[in-house]
Amino acid sequence: MNVAIHTLGCKLNQAESELFARQFADAGYSIVTGDAADIHVINTCTVTHIADRKSRHLVRMLKKKSPRALIVATGCYAQRAPEELEQVGAGLVVGNKEKMQLLALIKGRMDEQELGVPVFTANISRVRSFIKIQDGCNDACAYCIVPQVRGHERSVPAEEIIDEVRARVHDGYKEIVFTGTKIGDYSRNGVNLSQLIKEVLSIKELERLHISSVQPQDISPTLLELWQDARLCRHFHIALQSGSSSVLRKMGRRYSVDNFSSAVSLIRKMVKDVAITTDIMVGFPGETAEEFDEGYCFCKEMDFAAIHVFTYSARPGTPAARMPAQIEDRIKKERSLKMLQLAKDSAERFQKRFLGRVLSVLWENEVKPGSDVYSGLSHNYIRTFTRSDRPLNNQLFSVSPTSLDKEGLWVEIKDENKY
Predict the structure, then answer these.
(1) What is the dihedral of CA 139, 316, 56, 286, to 10 degrees?
(2) Tell me, what CATH number does 205's domain have?
(3) DSSP letters of 297-363?
(4) Of 67-71, 109-113, 123-127, 204-208, where does mean pLDDT reach its minimum?
């Protein structure tokens, strides 16, 4: 049987989809790409109404293109509103609480329907592996549905994570990405995040380690001292959400803009060439024009390497959905466009700093088959491109950036020695 896995949303979903792919492959299934498959697994997201809409659209599209295939919806949307996914054509809906039994549940359903004929197979990518170290959240941010669909915080035992890292390195992965809902709160059997990273870095064969999103209160000198090891990616994603302390209080966030600014200053002091990226929400209920302007100015001052801008979306069952003074869509759009322009300008400023410098890039694959153009990510997570008449997949080289376009930096390979 052929299985195609489609992932929407966060890096945690990517980690779980990668685990599904390995489970299916180990059970004798072929992992394929595209529309033609016997089984389509959609790992859904429900963080905004747009995420919901994308999930429903994908179910409908795959059902239309592969009418004989089993369409399986899992993930956060499947946990929150399974009936909505069933209505648009999902043959099996598996919430987060049951998703680790996905293979067994699909085997059971396969006995109930006739499936199509295999069409083509594809290899699992072995460049960057996402490993879930933690799941769930104990916070109660006013806008967020995640605690309801992911549950309370729980961390994976360190020994299981280390074994998983060793296995992925043995499989040929050059980069490991630690992900979770709130990985800064990682704690299991007396081991915290700093101690876990230190233990993983003792694996000499590991070439690159990337820590996904953290929060300002997670940042400490003890944690940042670990970045003396060049194998740790010089990239911190810290979700700000708003640059206005009054809006942050309404949101129920656990920090102020001063806390955030202090964390950023400490990171830049201790980690050379670091990229700091963030998420910004516009149009939170009650956000005044003055609060938006305050937040905009703070983001400009922070000079982020990248800003992910999204508009507030009411999630049923969250406190923010019941708040008065909901912002008009027209105002949300105006604020979003202004923040998106700042995001574009900030990213260009950051990337231009590295023209003529030396970066380490992990090359992923050709942009298009036969194009001889390869794409990769630098050690501080700048998207890079180069031309090569030989394969660069899953190789780690020193490069020199030569020019900048809207997609990222164009670079020349400096030499074939690892950075």
Answers:
(1) -80
(2) 3.30.750.210
(3) HHHHHHT-SEEEEEE----TTSGGGG-SSPPPHHHHHHHHHHHHHHHHHHHHHHHHTTTTS-EEEEE
(4) 109-113
Distances (CA, A) of 102 to 19, 42, 48, 109, 174: 11, 11, 24, 11, 28
Distance, in Å, from the CA atom of 261 to the CA atom of 259, rounded to the nearest integer, reads 6
For the chain, the farthest-separated pair of C-alpha atoms sits apart, in whole angstroms, at 60
d(CA 95, CA 103): 13
Residue 76 · residue 149 · CB < 8 Å: yes
Task: Extract the tokens encoding 86.
Answer: 């069933």
Q: Is the pTM of this model over 0.85?
A: yes
Q: What is the chain's percent helix, strand, coil content, to nearest 5?
A: 40, 25, 35
Domain, as residue range, for 155: 125-212
Whole-angstrom Cα distance, residue 150 to residue 290?
A: 34
- Count of CA atoms in the C-beta half-sphere (13 A) of 352: 8
Rounded CA separation 273/293 (Å): 29
Please name which of 13, 7, 87 lies closest in space to residue 41, comparing C-alpha atoms. 7
* Six token digits for residue 280: 């910004």
C-alpha distances (whole Å) from 187 to each of 4, 143, 192, 232 are: 34, 26, 5, 20
Q: What is the mean pLDDT of residues 324-337?
A: 96
The residue out of 56, 83, 110 marking a domain boundary is 110
Q: How many domains does the chain have?
A: 4
Q: What residue type is 219 in one-letter code?
A: I
Please answer whether residues 9 and 47 qualify as being in contact, where contact means their C-beta atoms are separated by less than 8 angstroms: yes
